[in-house]
Amino acid sequence: MNSSLQSLLTLENFVKDFQRQKQVWCSAFDAQLIRKFMRIRDARTSTDSYSKMRLLQSFKEEISVKAPEFRGCEQNDAHEFLTSILNQIWTLSPLLQDIAAYMGTGYTCPVESNLVFRVENIRTCKSCGTQSRRQEVLTNLSLDLVPGGCVEDMIQEYHKETMLEYKCECGGRTSCQKSYFKTLPKVLILHLKRFCFTSSYKLRKVQDSIKLERELLVSSKEDDACYSLVSIVSHLGNCGEAGHYICDGVHPDDHPDEPSDHWLTFNDAEISGTTGGSVCEQRKQTAYILFHKRQE
């Protein structure tokens, strides 16, 4: 929970979009998750650890109302927790838009305006060539690891054509599918698949080393974009059943116009200074979720 929240709080424009629309979500009783998220943000620099623990517990209880898998004290997956946060905030959008309209103003969900993107899947019958298109709306993208490769290699692997068993109206039973970015977000969250099931259905961690690069070029059907790495959630541990998550993120005082490469490592209550270069070198085998901010 801590590592996921620290990464989200690294996204300044995402947080500012909540602050800018405070009048709207403060007027909605059902927007408790946003309210508690922003209370955690406001207490981020506080030295009162007891107060912070109460805020985190309250946030955990709130998200568990619709995601009961996070209710107890079992170890859970940071990617699943992060996705649940974003989806729950996003589903509040219709309610908050109605409240905003009643107030004579507007509401734009920060999840939708900063993180959401669209992927287009094109399926082609190998017998007759008939195509069908389907769009997915996502807040993050899961990628297969390419051992020794970089994130761009993994995205290229994602774009590759795959074969499907699919019965076409022409009688053909084999199709191929390719996936493309239809649109690109302001912040691209990439989940690296570091866990898989063995033949005996046990969860195993994939510890292959990858290349972590500071800049990422991504193409879509509409445009190209250059992204900068701003945060990483890493999984420490050798097995798939347990472990420990930490977060590395750009220091809030680091400005894009004059970057100092000043980063912070958040290891629960321990916070230490580091650099982006050091993070990319140290997290080659542990990086699990990557946050990339689109350059202006």
In short:
The chain is an alpha+beta fold. It is built from ten helices and 14 strands.
Name some characteristics of this structure.
296 residues, alpha+beta, 8-stranded mixed β-sheet, 4-stranded antiparallel β-sheet, 31% helix, globular
Q: Tell me the total number of β-strands.
A: 14
The overall pLDDT, averaged over residues, is 94
* Spatial shape: globular
Spans of at least 5 consecutive residues whose pLDDT stays below 50 are none
Rg, Å, rounded: 21 Å
Description of the molecule:
The protein has 296 residues and is of the alpha+beta class. The protein contains ten helices and 14 strands. The strands form three sheets. Strands 3, 6, 9, 10, 11, 12, 13 and 14 form an eight-stranded mixed sheet that branches. Helix 4 runs antiparallel to helix 5. The model has no long low-confidence stretch (mean pLDDT 94).
